[in-house]
# Entry
Amino acid sequence: MILKYVWDPFVRIFHWSLVVAFAVAFYTHASEWDRLIHIRAGYVAGALILARIVWGLMRTGYASFDSFPLNPLWAVKHLYRVMQGQAKHYIGHNPTGALVIYAMLATGLIAVISGWLVFNEGWLIDEPALLQSLHHYSTWGWLALVVIHVSGVLVESILHRDNLIWAMITGCKRVCKINERRPQEIKDNF
Amino acid sequence: MKKLNFALLALLSLTALSASADVANAVKLEKKYATFAKNANPEYAGPSAVDGKFFFNRKIKLANGKEAACASCHTANPADQGKHMVTGKPIKPLSPMVNHKRFSDVEKVEEQFTEHCNDIIGSDCTAAEKANYIAYLLTEKTPSTKQ
# Structure
């Protein structure tokens, strides 16, 4: 068994902080009593996402956006190969997972920005009804993406006989087959 | 540029649509809730603005110690601009007579009632309470002079 260090401390702290911020914001969304907690959780989530984007633009190994390019076609192909049982083993994000990650980052940003504008009603864009709908659908969409993300994690954990949730805590993934490829070599599969 | 024009046009027509929704929807909603209230309780005499006003101003203490009335945020005159008691943010007037965007979208009204009633009384309001509430708000037409 070979352990491969994949997720750096920033990524792990970011990941679980975002989980907490999102959970708090979700739990407090309906009550006016909790409005300030909801707002603060939202701002924390927004700051975390921005920090993650900056981190992704830097040379940060498996955390770098270069290591998991956004390509919907690859994402569909990879999913098809998973269902055929012929999927390649990726150490970082696989192409399907990458698509969900980018969708979550984008939806998360829209959710936070729309929430920010709803809270400061009348400022910048004076369309309360439109902004409320945007906030409503982007946050529920975000939750749907979280469900897809977790499903993907569970599927890959079973397929690779690895505990990917534990990997996001320790940073280490178990790499069974050493067909290790450097980030840019992902392209060779497609 | 053309795309932007279309987007602006779409946004504009959306605004026009919401502006056309006026107080008629509030009256319809009041009737709808009154029908539900009568179904639940045949002795319900119909929407009462007096009961609605009492409900609006009554401070209610929840089991968790939190205490508020509708008026805590919307002020004693719902034709006035309100102020959120937790965040301090301004709230547009609640009365549909002053703010035509209020009580225009049924789904939104239902959602707001459910969430706000949970905040204030600890459960959803009854159909009778909702009918009385809208009946009262329809009587508040004049903002206070100080504003």
In short: Chain B has one domain: 22-137.
